[in-house]
Amino acid sequence: MELGLFTCGYQRYPLEQAFEDAGRFGYDYIELWGGYPHAYVEDLSLTGVREVERLVQKYHIPVKCFTPEHNAYPFNYMTGDAFQWVRSMNYLERAIELTAAMGASKMLFSAGHAGYRMSVQEIDERLQKSLERLVQKAEQQSVTLILEPLTVYESNVITGLNDLERALDKVDSPNLVGMCDLAVPFTTGEPAAEYVRRLGRRFGYLHVIDNDGVSDSHILPGEGNIPLEGILREIRRAGYDGCATIELVTGYLKEPSVYAELAIERIREMLKNE
Fold first, then answer.
1. What are phi and psi of 126, to 5 degrees?
2. Which domains are assigned to the chain?
3. Is the pTM for the entire model greater than 0.85?
4. Which is it for strands 176-181 and 29-34: parallel, antiparallel or unpaired?
5. Cα(130)–Cα(58) distance, rounded to whole angstroms?
6. Fewer CB under 10 Å: which end of the chain, C or N?
7. CB atoms < 10 A from the CB of 105, how many?
8. Other beta carbons within 10 Å of 251
């Protein structure tokens, strides 16, 4: 597997620190978080992607995936009125354009919480309408959209494999694929490798993280309750050996370098033991 560093955990440091660490710790690529202060979509729209390109060239670490911040902070295409939906679509369409501009082949996004007043039919219709519009832009820009399920603590739209498969069935395009964040199947009681088996060619990405089983927490690998070594082995046996971002987020803001190094050491050791 190619292991990626997620820059969200470096938001209290310059973006260059994340690239420097990715290089010195042996990460294969960067998953660029699109939030303040590093790569917020509206800022990149004004300044361009020159700084990102400079860091890629300086540290020889590619950005393979762009993950714009969304889902209520500040946008959520699954809730609100028509005006809010259009603003969310415009924001994510611009993010797709920026993904292409920085030379990344993938953009990761998810479906936020739809609130408690929408029926299942209303949720399905809004989701399909949103995916159709975003896929059209992705096809124009030659970007692959990675649709991420969220835990039940974060959303009520796509929170498991069946939800993800139905969403992909509604909008059949080679530019839309699914993925698995290991916290999701662990909290819902699903086998993670089944995502790979069921989705086949439509499975395209992995977030590696540990979890306590009763929340949406993203814990340093080896310090939660997920049997990571065995699950990674099953995922590879199922046929996936591609990009896998180690998704350390806000729980490790104080010492991101320390935890980024420790995380990749532990995952590399697990993969080596297979």
1. -65, -40
2. 2-272 (3.20.20.150)
3. yes
4. unpaired
5. 37
6. C
7. 15
8. 12
Question: Do the Cβ atoms of 27 and 259 come closer than 8 Å?
Answer: no
Catalytic status, residue 223: no
Strands (E), the chain: 2-6, 29-34, 63-68, 106-110, 144-148, 176-181, 203-208, 243-246
d(CA 184, CA 194): 12
Q: Which of 247, 255, 261, 274 is catalytic?
A: 247
Q: Which of 148, 165, 255, 265 is catalytic?
A: 148
The pLDDT tens digits of the residues spanning 96-106 come to 999 999 999 99
CB neighbours of residue 150 within 10 Å: 22
Among this protein's residues, is 247 annotated catalytic? yes
Beta-strand ranges (E) seen in 23-71 are 29-34, 63-68
* Strands 243-246 and 63-68, sheet pairing: unpaired
> At CB < 8 A and 24+ separation, what contacts does 74-77 make?
76/112, 76/113, 77/111, 77/112, 77/126, 77/130
181-195 residue pLDDT tens: 999 999 999 999 999
Residue 273's pLDDT band (boundaries 50, 70, 90)? Answer: confident
HSE at residue 118, side-chain half, CA atoms within 13 A, is 18
Burial of 151 (0-12, 13-18, 19+ CB in 10 A): buried
Q: Which residue has the tokens 């180690």?
A: 246
Alpha carbons 50 and 92: distance in angstroms, whole number: 20
- For residue 198, give every residue at least 6 positions away whose Cβ sits within 8 Å of its Cβ, in sequence order, or none: 161, 165
* C-beta of residue 56 within 8 angstroms of C-beta of residue 63: yes
The size of the chain, in residues, is 274
Whether the CB-CB separation of 66 and 34 falls below 8 Å is answered with yes
Q: What is the DSSP letter of 241?
A: -
* Residue bearing tokens 């999701």: 184
